[in-house]
């Protein structure tokens, strides 16, 4: 399903002394099957934006087209249950929302709530555990007996069990160690490829955005200020620094070497593998001379 926002604004606590405008005139298209990273400072409106993707929040101005749904400001859309199934949101620290006695019960909760029989849900638990890289043995354990990373995988399996078309991830790797982060990010990349899911990733990690996304949105004070491929976004280092954002270390390395030696790398270095390839090409050229 495509997501298309036209002039979407969101104000919290409207008509109260605490009224706060968190989104201004958002105009955005997210194509089905794409992998979009949303980056921006704390308070720039990322979480507010993504809660509009399944109607948890509704625009206070403008229109949100979410697949077959059109949510128009001022007309409270009530029949959103099917949309919630199509767009799965994994909130920050999703493991805090686990509550059942066993992993199996926790994972089955969502699909059963959406009408799947207990028998079918239980029969598919093994498949959902495999999707998030957990062994069958954890099925009958208490989720609270697992490690933090495993608990997070259980929570994610519960969202995947609803077979969403769009998976929205709000800082899914926060608090994980580097290895856990990489495993989790690779898992989402595989899901996007295998299941043709759309992924919207909110992250503070420029490295994650550069490596995994094919499209980047930068938010600043409730608006979208930049949009482009990782190559387009990270080409403009000064612009990112001006916006107060980090730049991947590999991009800074490339820039420092290019400036110091007056050379140009053959390709933008968004990942360590890009650096390796570029250096190999450069050294081969030097050897020939
Ligand atoms: N329930 C609320 N009531 C009032 N204001 C809110 C509410 N939730 C968020 N805000 C405000 O809206 C603005 C955008 O917040 P939001 O959480 O969307 O930003 P964010 O970019 O996701 O931040 P973070 O990276 O810290 O999660 C902030 O100024 C925030 O204080």
From TrEMBL:
For this protein, the Enzyme Commission number is: 7.-.-.-
**Matching SMART domains, A to Z?**
AAA (SM00382)
Q: One MF term in GO for this entry?
A: cobalt ion transmembrane transporter activity
**Descriptive protein name:** Energy-coupling factor transporter ATP-binding protein EcfA2
Give the superkingdom in one word: Bacteria
> NCBIfam families of this UniProt entry?
ECF_ATPase_2, PRK13634.1
Q: Which InterPro entries match?
A: AAA+_ATPase (IPR003593), ABC_transporter-like_ATP-bd (IPR003439), ABC_transporter-like_CS (IPR017871), ABC_transpr_CbiO/EcfA_su (IPR015856), ECF_ABC_transporter_ATP-bd (IPR050095), EcfA2 (IPR030946), P-loop_NTPase (IPR027417)
Q: Could you say which enzyme class this protein belongs to?
A: translocase
Keyword Membrane attributed = yes
Domain named ABC transporter: which ranges? Answer: 3-246
Assembly description: Forms a stable energy-coupling factor (ECF) transporter complex composed of 2 membrane-embedded substrate-binding proteins (S component), 2 ATP-binding proteins (A component) and 2 transmembrane proteins (T component).
Q: Where in the cell is it found?
A: Cell membrane
Instruction: List the Pfam families.
Output: ABC_tran
């Amino acid at each position: 399903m495509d997501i298309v926002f036209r002039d979407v604004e969101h104000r919290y606590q409207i008509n109260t002394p605490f009224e706060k405008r968190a989104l201004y005139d958002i105009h955005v298209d997210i194509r089905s099957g794409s992998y979009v990273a949303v980056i921006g400072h704390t308070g720039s409106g990322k979480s507010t934006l993504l809660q509009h993707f399944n109607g948890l929040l509704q625009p206070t101005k403008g229109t949100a087209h979410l697949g077959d749904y059109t949510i128009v400001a001022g007309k409270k859309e009530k029949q959103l249950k099917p949309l919630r199934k199509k767009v799965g949101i994994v909130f920050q620290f999703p493991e805090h929302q686990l509550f059942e006695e066993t992993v199996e019960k926790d994972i089955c909760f969502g699909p059963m709530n959406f009408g799947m029989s207990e028998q079918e849900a239980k029969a598919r638990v093994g498949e959902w555990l495999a999707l998030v890289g957990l062994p069958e043995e954890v099925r009958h354990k208490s989720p609270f007996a697992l490690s933090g990373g495993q608990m997070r995988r259980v929570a994610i399996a519960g969202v995947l069990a609803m077979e969403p078309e769009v998976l929205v991830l709000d800082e899914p790797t926060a608090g994980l160690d580097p290895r856990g982060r990489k495993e989790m990010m690779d898992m989402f990349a595989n899901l996007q490829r295998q299941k043709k899911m759309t992924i919207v990733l909110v992250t503070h990690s420029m490295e994650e955005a550069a490596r995994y996304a094919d499209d980047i949105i930068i938010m600043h004070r409730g608006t979208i200020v930049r949009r482009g491929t990782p190559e387009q976004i990270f080409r403009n280092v000064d612009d990112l620094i001006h916006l107060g954002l980090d730049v991947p270390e590999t991009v800074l390395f490339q820039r420092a070497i290019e400036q110091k030696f007056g050379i140009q790398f053959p390709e933008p270095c968004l990942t360590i593998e890009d650096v390796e390839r570029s250096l190999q090409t450069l050294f081969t050229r030097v050897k020939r001379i």
